[in-house]
Amino acid sequence: MTAAEFTALLPLLGIAGTSIVLMSAIAIRRDRRWAMAITIAGLSVSFGLLFAARPVTPCIVTQLLVIDGYALFFFALLIAASAVVALLAYEFLDRRGCDCGEFYLLLLFATLGSCVLAAATHFASLFLGLEILSVSLYAMIAYLRNTETSLEAGVKYLVLAAVSSAFLLFGMALIYAETGTMAFSAFSSLAIRPETGSILLTTAGLALMMVGVGFKLALVPFHMWTADVYQGAPAPVTAFVATVSKAAVVALLLRLLAAAETPPPELVWIMALFAGASIIIGNLLALQQDNVKRLLAYSSIAHMGYLMIAIIAGGANGGEAAAFYLAAYIPTTLGAFGVVTVQSFGNRDCDHLYDYVGLGRSRPFLAGTLTVTLFSLAGIPLTAGFVGKFLVLGAGVESGQWALTLILVLGSVISIFYYLRVIVAMYMRPEEAAQTAPIVPRVSILAGATLTALVAVLLWLGVWPAPFMEIIRAAVSVL
């Protein structure tokens, strides 16, 4: 390994090194405060190493990974989001009486697997990163082993991840059989192969891989059990699954399609059907929910459908819109699940709608935070979600996807109704608050500062997105 390759890998090595340090610390002394401190310190150092690892030109490491501006951008998103989850999880697990050393170890492993996916340029590194992420998530989702719903969610996620991996591997095998290589660069030659057999084989392989990605992103019709997993998993883990794991898969999908240059029309049609169905069915199912975590689960299905519109659009505008939408979606979703995490106490998550009745009076800070995040999810102006949807809409119109853009607009209108249900419960039903609302625990300085930072990011991206768009434009330009 050359010095340049070693320097480029410093962020990944920082996360891996932190996991080793934490493992050793747990063996010596079990202390949840030390576990959290080591994790946050390691993730902070890894984030700082992004600036040292920034290569002048893309650095290809052993043909498996490429460290370029695009990979470093997603490294920053994934590491920052993982740090937020680590901060929110501390008091949540403390209230449950958990010794959370192993939880933070699993969190580091999952973050490492996510970063590997963002930098993968080979089927081997793709599968390695995916399995590191998935195996860690099995245990994180079922971490509250004395809770039946948590164990059930872990088993269901295990089944979904296994099916997803099977489709991905079968698709990889078909593409390898045709091209003779497992590097993403092989996709660039697919468009110029005129043989019918070649077209069928490679298209089938790409379609199977897209099915595997559909399971990972919970796109319709692969959304079964998604709401069950969101509801049963511990609230901080649900936040991680909804943000970091999906961001890593989106980063992989963008790089994969960029390598293909001109995806087969059949694949584009399949992706368009997934996107439209996810927006319609995700929003309609969310309308029927009284459980906030399930509502956010079906909402996330719709948001992945919105994101797919930008991915299908392709080109510079599509890539930039997808990257910005994802960057806006991550703090928005972390903020929403962060409020659920802070509210939860005892032996259950406070995730039913009646848990939020009168919250505007009893805990105005939490109610205000949740309101801003719901406004962002709905695409209300002056929030990051509005700018993200505007960019996706522009990319869809420019690429001529009129049907999908119309579905996006209709889906956004429908979503306002179920987001407003939560807001109405918090502010406009005071007569029921004394009878139904539970006692809300005091918001700690740590949780309060984390939620405040998330809200500040949402408002900054919604009011002044230009500087961040320049960063995204530079990152996506390498694809």
Question: What does this 3D model show about the protein?
Answer:
The protein has 479 residues and is mainly alpha-helical. It has a domain at 264-479. The protein has helices at residues 3-8, 10-28, 32-52, 69-95, 101-119, 123-141, 148-179, 196-217, 226-232, 235-260, 265-286, 292-313, 315-343, 359-362, 364-378, 384-398, 402-427, 430-436, 445-463, 466-476; strands at residues 59-61, 65-67. The protein has a two-stranded antiparallel ribbon. A hairpin with a 3-residue loop joins β1 and β2 (65-67). The two termini are 25 Å apart.
Biggest sheet character: 2 strands, antiparallel
Radius of gyration based on Cα positions: 21 Å
Task: State the helix count.
Answer: 20
- End-to-end distance: 25 Å
Residues in helices, as a percent range: over 70%
Low-confidence region ranges? none
Give the topology:
Elements: H1 3-8, H2 10-28, H3 32-52, E1 59-61, E2 65-67, H4 69-95, H5 101-119, H6 123-141, H7 148-179, H8 196-217, H9 226-232, H10 235-260, H11 265-286, H12 292-313, H13 315-343, H14 359-362, H15 364-378, H16 384-398, H17 402-427, H18 430-436, H19 445-463, H20 466-476
Antiparallel strand pairs: 1-2
